[in-house]
Specification:
The protein is an alpha/beta fold and 444 residues long. It folds into four domains: 3-129, Rossmann fold (3-Layer(aba) Sandwich), CATH 3.40.50.11060; 133-203; 215-383, P-loop containing nucleotide triphosphate hydrolases (Rossmann fold), CATH 3.40.50.300; 386-442, Alpha-Beta Plaits. The chain contains 15 helices and 15 strands. Strand 3, helix 4 and strand 4 (117-120) form a beta-alpha-beta unit.
Length: 444
C-alpha cells in the first residue's frame, strides 16, 4: 500500500466516526433576473449529502433552511441558528456542513454557536478534491486552491494567530504577528506551486505538439459530476477507469485511444466532473487540466438524463466551459443523454434524440445501448474541415503505406489487379499540402 493510499484510509476512518449535520440554505424568493432552470431545494440537499458522503462522513441528518435574506454575521437567521445549535448538541454533532459560501466571520460565529467544526460548500469540495487527487499535477492543483482558500480565512480575530514573533537584528525586522507570517508562507508556497504548474502547462503543450504529428484528434468528455463519464469512457475504450456512483470519483484526467466506425481512431480524454457553484479558485487551479478541453477537436457533453435537475446541471456545465474559454463551441459539441437504462418506456418515447446532425444522442453507458450511434456522431463531427485524399501507391511502397497509417486516418484500402494499392485517407486542412508533397503524383 502506498503512503497516499494509507493516508486516504486513515482519513476515511476518521471521517466515518465524524457525526455530521448538513444544512442546506435556499432562497425563498427567486430574483426576477435569474435565468435558466431552477434547481430544486430537495435536489440540492441530495447533492450536498452526496458530497459529504464522498469523503466518508457519517451524515446523521440534513436540513433545508429557507432564507428571505442572508445575515452578515451568521448567514442564517438568529432563531434558526439557535434551533440548529440545539439539534447539534442533542445529536452530538462534531461537524456541520453548510451548503453555501460562508465568509470567515460567518464560519467562526456559527462554530461558536454550534460548538462544532463548520465548513462551507467550498471547503467541502476542496476536501473531496484533496482526497481524490492521485497524480502530482492533481495534488499541486488542489493544494493551490486550498492555499487560496486558507489565505482568505486568515483574519486577525483568530486569537491563536496573533502571537508576536520577535525579530533578531536584521532578521524579521521589528517582529511580525503570526498571522502575517502564515500569510507570507502561504504566498511563498503558492508562488512555488504556480511555477511548478507552469512547467506542467509547458509539458502539456509539448505533448499536444507531439500528438499533432500523429493523426489522432482529441475527444474530451465533460459533464456534471456523476453523470456517468467514466462509465462511458470505459465502454468506449474498454479501459478500467474507476467508475462508481459517487460525486467526483474522477479527478485526474485519463486518456485512451478509441476506435471509430470507419477504421480511424481518436484520443478520448476523461476529465473532472463539474458542479454548481464550483469554487472560483478550483476553476483557476484546474485551468491547466481544462486546457485539454479547450484543445479538443470534439467535446462530448455527457448528461444524466434520468436526473430531475438534468437541465439545470447542463446550464452549470455550459457556464464553467464558458469560464475556461470554451465559449461558442457548438460546432464541436456532441450532447449525450446518458443513463437511458434508468428511464421507463414512457419517458423514452419523449426523447427526440439522434434525429439529424447536432441532435442529442441517447445512450446507456452501462448497457451499451446507443454507443454505435455516438461513435458515428463523433466521427461525423471530426470529419468537418477535414479533406479526403485518394492515393495510388506501388506495391513496393510499404514505407509510404506505413507513413499514411502513422500520420493520417486511413478510411479505405484496396489492392488493384496490377499489384498497386489504392488508399483513401482523411487529413486536417493544414496537413493536405504535407501529404501531397510526400506522395507527389500518387496523390489525387
Amino acid at each position: 500500500m502506498s503512503d497516499l493510499e494509507g493516508a486516504g484510509r486513515r482519513e476515511a476512518a476518521v471521517a466515518s466516526r465524524t457525526r455530521t449535520l448538513v444544512i442546506c440554505p435556499y432562497s425563498t424568493a427567486r430574483a426576477s433576473g435569474d435565468r435558466g432552470p431552477a434547481r430544486t431545494p430537495e435536489a440540492r440537499r441530495e447533492e450536498a449529502e452526496g458530497l459529504a458522503r464522498a469523503i466518508d462522513l457519517d451524515v446523521v441528518g440534513s436540513i433545508l433552511v429557507g432564507l428571505a435574506d442572508i445575515r452578515p454575521a451568521t448567514y442564517l437567521g438568529k432563531g434558526k441558528v439557535a434551533e440548529l445549535a440545539e439539534r447539534a448538541q442533542t445529536d452530538k454533532i462534531a461537524l456541520v456542513v453548510v451548503d453555501a459560501a460562508l465568509s470567515p466571520v460567518q464560519q467562526r460565529n456559527l462554530e461558536k454557536e454550534f460548538k462544532a467544526k463548520v465548513i462551507d460548500r467550498t471547503g467541502l469540495i476542496l476536501e473531496i478534491f484533496g482526497r481524490r487527487a492521485r497524480t502530482a499535477e492533481g495534488a499541486l492543483q488542489v493544494e493551490l486552491a486550498h492555499l487560496t482558500y486558507q489565505k482568505s480565512r486568515l483574519v486577525r480575530s483568530w486569537t491563536h494567530l496573533e502571537r508576536q514573533r520577535g525579530g533578531f537584528g536584521f532578521l524579521g525586522g521589528p517582529g511580525e504577528t503570526q498571522i502575517e507570517t502564515d500569510r507570507r508562507l502561504i504566498e511563498e508556497r503558492m508562488i512555488r506551486i504556480e511555477r511548478d504548474l507552469d512547467k506542467v502547462k509547458k509539458t502539456r503543450a509539448l505533448h499536444r505538439a507531439s500528438r499533432a504529428e500523429v493523426p489522432y484528434p482529441i475527444v474530451a468528455l465533460v459533464g456534471y459530476t456523476n453523470a456517468g463519464k467514466s462509465t462511458l469512457f470505459n465502454r468506449l475504450t474498454r479501459a478500467e477507469v474507476v467508475a462508481v456512483d459517487m460525486l467526483f470519483a474522477t479527478l485526474d484526467p485519463t486518456m485512451r485511444l478509441v476506435k471509430l466506425p470507419h477504421g480511424g481512431a481518436a484520443i478520448l480524454s476523461d476529465t473532472v466532473g463539474f458542479i454548481s457553484d464550483l469554487p472560483t479558485m478550483l476553476i483557476s487551479a484546474f485551468r491547466a487540466t481544462l486546457e485539454e478541453v479547450r484543445a479538443a477537436d470534439v467535446i462530448v457533453h455527457v448528461r444524466d438524463i434520468a436526473h430531475a435537475d438534468s437541465d439545470a446541471q447542463a446550464k452549470d456545465v455550459e457556464a464553467i466551459l464558458a469560464e475556461v474559454g470554451v465559449a461558442g463551441a457548438a460546432d464541436k459539441l456532441v450532447e449525450v443523454w446518458n443513463k437511458l437504462d434508468k428511464l421507463d418506456a414512457d419517458h423514452r418515447v419523449g426523447l427526440a434524440t439522434g434525429q439529424g446532425e447536432g441532435a442529442p444522442i441517447a445512450v446507456s453507458a452501462l448497457t451499451g445501448e446507443g454507443i454505435d450511434a455516438l461513435l458515428q456522431a463523433i466521427e461525423t463531427r471530426l470529419a468537418r474541415g477535414r479533406s479526403l485524399i485518394d492515393l495510388d501507391l506501388e506495391s513496393a511502397d510499404g514505407q509510404g503505406l506505413h507513413w499514411l497509417y502513422e500520420h493520417t486516418e486511413v478510411m479505405a484500402r484496396r489492392n488493384d489487379e496490377d499489384g498497386g494499392v489504392r488508399v483513401t485517407v482523411r487529413v486536417p486542412a493544414d496537413a493536405v499540402d504535407r501529404v501531397k508533397r510526400r506522395f507527389g503524383a500518387a496523390a489525387r
